[in-house]
Design brief:
The complex is a heterodimer of chains A (265) and B (266). Chain A is built from 12 helices and no strands. By secondary structure, chain A is an all-alpha fold. Chain B has one domain. The radius of gyration of chain B is 19 Å and the shape is globular. Classes of the chains: A mainly alpha (265), B mainly alpha (266).
Amino acid sequence: MKGLTHSLAVVVARWRVGAQYEVQYRLNFVLQVVESAVRLVTGVVAIRIVYSFTTSLRGWEEPELLAVLGVHILLGGVLATFVMPNMHRFRYEVHQGELDYALVRPVDTQLFVSTRQISFWNLVDVATGAVVIGWAVAGLAGRVGFVDAVVFAVALACGGVILYSVWMTFTTTVFWLVDLRDADQIINGLYDAGRWPIRIYPFWLQGTLTAVVPLGVAITVPAEALTGRVTPGSMAVLVVVAAVTVAAARAFWNLGVRNYSGASA
Amino acid sequence: MRILLGVYAVEARLAMQRQAQYRGAAFISILGFLMEPVVYLIVWRLVTTATGAIGGYGTEQFTAYYIVWTLVRVFNLALAPGAWDWWVQSGRIANDLLHPVDPFHRNLASMAGAKVVWIAVWVPTAAFLVLVFRPELSPNFFQVFTFFVAAWAGYVIRFITLWALGLVSFWTTRAQALVEVVIALELLLSGRLVPMAVMPPWVQTVSSRLPFKWTFQFPIEVLIGQVSAADVWRGLGVQVAWIAAGALAILALWRRALRRFTAVGT
């Protein structure tokens, strides 16, 4: 317990320093606002075009699609703020043989490698996603109750955990594959597929985005929770997937570190 | 001109040989950008199954459109404006400026050569899509021939557009926001997101007056037979006009950009 408290204190200190470093570059805030606006406009335009021809997409109505888009942007912001900077640094250090310096620290190494950096201005995406979710809730006209909100919060947390674990597992392959730039396209493509509810996809794609690379389920189920569509079965699947991906990421990290021989002098 | 053509041939051949060594990486990249059209395809098949054809696009046309989309995307790949940030800021462009041939020609030829390998590794992914979605696509010789002309012309237009956008890096190190906006406009107005026939008429008018549609939707529609023979010739003419206008713009911008560039190196 003492070790965990110590590790969390290190994480908080790291994030504080990272945020202080980033806020020096205020122009980056403006750039991030433009980027988020572009993402929002293209996402909303795509939905509006579809719903100008139909009122329902396999049972999903426009405000419900907005909820999926909001969760997609929000979780994408969480990824870009807290996860991606650390994954990029981890990859860079394996290439350069500098990971040894992280591995000898007296804290949990996976936690340390996953939390060293923060890309502060990407929080704009988190705020944008929250606004879109608010917009969707307004369009759902009183369909969202207190219980829905609580289930949504739990589902969103599980979704965040799944995204981190999937990216951690993917990045850990760097111990063997070294260059992941091309494979990046695949995982980013699968994440973008989560911009639409996976329930509208054929069975083979739903299965892929639930069981193989569970990025789709991490976004759709929180949106279902918000729109009152969630079933106990899909929540159970989400929780199980979250637990399995965390355990898999941990086991894979341990295996990778055991295989890592270092390259520094 | 003859010397330049020789340079193009050599650069393209070298790039092809280089890319052939990394054919696995090219295949993985193609797999990566497969999700985007597959998602659009599924969504629009659902919509048209319920509503019937929209703007001349029924389920079969949408299926053929998004499968040919994947090939045109390969043709469309050009030097990303983001690469310019590094190229200019690191001063590495100084090496290329010492070369007797303009970097524009060398990069245009090199990416075209690499594309041949990309197209070869695209075939198995296309076979998978055809097996899963069963498109009805039976182009005649004229459509196939003009498709390849239009696709290569589309590549040149997009290369020029992105090159011009990249030149902004000589004036500011923060061109990223501008690039994001242009790429979003391209997504919406090129036919990459949806065929323009699905868009409101005013968007179609705007789209036909910008270069984006001529790099993406036009070649696709040529192959799937959504444009008449007369419109194919007219479209090829528009592509030539965009290439000429773009080349003039690059000529004017390139000299001014270089005057702003200074590098200190070892």
